[in-house]
Amino acid sequence: MYARVPVNRITAFLTVIFSMNFRWLPILVSLCLCSCQSAEDYLQKANLAMEKGEYRKAIGYADKAIAKKKYLSEAYTTKAYCYTALKNDDSAIITYQQVVVFQPSNTLAHYNIAISYFRLNKPDESIAALHGAMRSKGYDPEDSTHIQAIMEKTSTSVLLSGQPDIFDIPFNQIQYLAGQVHYDKGEIRLAYRYFRSCAAAKYNYAESQYMIGLCWLASGKKEKACEAFRTSSFYAYQPAFDELEKHCKSTEPSAFLKQASSASLN
Predict the structure, then answer these.
(1) pLDDT at 10
(2) pLDDT average, residue stretch 104-116
């Protein structure tokens, strides 16, 4: 025969056990939920916070994503973008440089490093980063003796691969920024070369022609500058009209030309 335990004692014991379990239940559930969060989950939260303008919260989520998956490039990019939005270019540069360490072909990271240095008035560092962006696309900016192929993402290649490269930047976009940096440094010939290449590719054509005009003007070639400004003004680029007014009054475009440029945009 087994001794019987009084019913009231069993009830008291179960009450203690259940009260302890339920008291800790919210904490246990919270810990379980946290442990189940993936890097992608944190990245999604970071992007949502970023879209709302909650940049510091987004950085926190991006850090948690990186802690889960060290080489998640998208998390670094989101984090760096938030630093840029907070006008913290130094931290943005450090974050993008971390990407370049494990993903040297990340054109976007190189390019955004260049932009950040440009804003910080560090043109040499900006040019170095732009050279990195060019090399990531198979182009060596210091080799002018060979014809070079450029690896450019196109709609066709994206369709065939099924994997759009969110870290790509068009080569001409890189060249245009390089032209701007060289122009600000007073390196007019290098700036002209980049803007000329952009114009030949019809990239930012009106702006490129305008910058070509400024390069000619800085070189003392007023006639050639006016020719470039006229070409730019044909596409109704207002700064080109301003330069024509200042430097090329004798060759200012006719009213017909202005009308034609306006019509070309309609």
Answers:
(1) 47
(2) 96
Q: What's the pLDDT band for 144 if we cut at 50, 70, 90?
A: confident
Q: How far apart are CA 26 and CA 31, in angstroms?
A: 9
Phi, psi for 61 (deg, rounded to 5): -65, -40
Residue type, 233: S
Q: Residue 160 and residue 112: Cα distance in Å, rounded?
A: 27
pLDDT digits (tens, 9 = 90+) for 76-109: 999 999 999 999 999 999 999 999 999 999 999 9
In contact, 49 and 58? CB cutoff 8 Å: yes
Is 42 within 8 Å of 65 (Cβ atoms)?
yes
- Write down the H helix ranges in the chain: 7-36, 39-51, 55-68, 73-85, 89-102, 107-119, 123-136, 155-161, 171-185, 188-200, 205-218, 222-233, 238-247, 255-264
Residue 162: left (phi > 0), alpha (psi -120 to 50), or beta?
Answer: left
Two tokens at 7?
């019913």
CA angle 112, 113, 119 (to 5 degrees): 90
Asked if residues 63 and 57 have their Cβ atoms less than 8 Å apart, the reply is: no
